[in-house]
Design a protein that fits this description.
The structure is a single chain. The protein is built from seven helices and eleven strands. By secondary structure, the chain is of the alpha+beta class. The chain folds into two domains: 4-129, N-terminal domain of MutM-like DNA repair proteins (Alpha-Beta Barrel), CATH 3.20.190.10; 142-265, Orthogonal Bundle (Helicase, Ruva Protein, domain 3). The strands form three sheets. A five-stranded mixed β-sheet has the order 2-9-5-4-3. A four-stranded antiparallel β-sheet has the order 1-7-8-6, covered by helices on one side. A two-stranded antiparallel ribbon has the order 10-11. Strand 7 and strand 8 form a beta hairpin. Helix 4 (142-150) packs across helix 7 and helix 6 (171-180) packs across helix 7. The chain is globular. It binds a DNA duplex (16 and 16 nucleotides) through helix 6.
Length: 271
Amino acid sequence: MPELPEVETIKRDLSKLIVGHKILGITTDSPKQVQPSLTVVKKAIVGAKVKRIKRRAKLLQIFLSNGQILAIHLKMTGRLLVRKKDFPKDDWQHVIISLSGNQELRFADLRKFGWVKLIKDKKELEKLLAEFGPEPLDDLDLKKFRAILASSGRPVKIILMDQKKISGVGNIYANDALFLAKIDPRRPAKKISDQEAKKLLQVIEKVLKAGIKYRGASDQYYLDALGRKGAYQEHFLTYGREGKKCFDCDGKVKKIKLGGRGTFFCPKCQK
DNA sequence: CAATCAACCTGGGTGC
DNA sequence: TGCACCCAGGTTGATT
């Protein structure tokens, strides 16, 4: 579910809500999602304070006062909710971190693909983060982007979503960016012209910024740290619009499968 | 090396 | 109503 804008929204929320709070405990009814194990994580984090929150790609990192880090990946249906202790149980809550100030950080996840992982120090974190490609709103210039596209003959949409090549772009924003750039998602990446690459990079930034502005896309499961929906789903250009009129011509949005993922585009104006 | 696909899970929707 | 099947914002690891 969550792509860069959704994870960034949660990062900003958590920065306001839990920084400075002390960790009092952790429980789970889904042990596989806590790594390396609940016992080890509990021992490492209880008593520490939350120092700061960061995001890299779709991975959240909670930096603790004792130098350790909790890395959290939400995968498809993960949520991170900050609640008062007596707030009613959230749907699919599986990991509960109790905090000072009568608060809880609840990790909820319908499909249980997400995880909470203890990272021992900055070195171990760096190793993990080294796998990710550049950040599109930060680190990705046209030169790098052209080189990334030129490096593969796979469909351009698959390259946009490959976290090793570019980090943070997922299915929703990849579809919408390709629509704005008027590029067919099936085109081999290396066949994208320099002119098209320039446009594509611009609109990737545009859709991600729109996603952040609207506090994420709550098409199905996404909620921010206070349990509120985002609004980007009201501004989808192609995602989930199969059979509906293209916003740019008199064609209709078509859905195909690409790399096993639902892919939405207008065959009439995306060339 | 690239491409494809199953696997990890649960629940909602559809069609028979 | 029941059941089989397909689909879902992500990533990884096995297999062609």
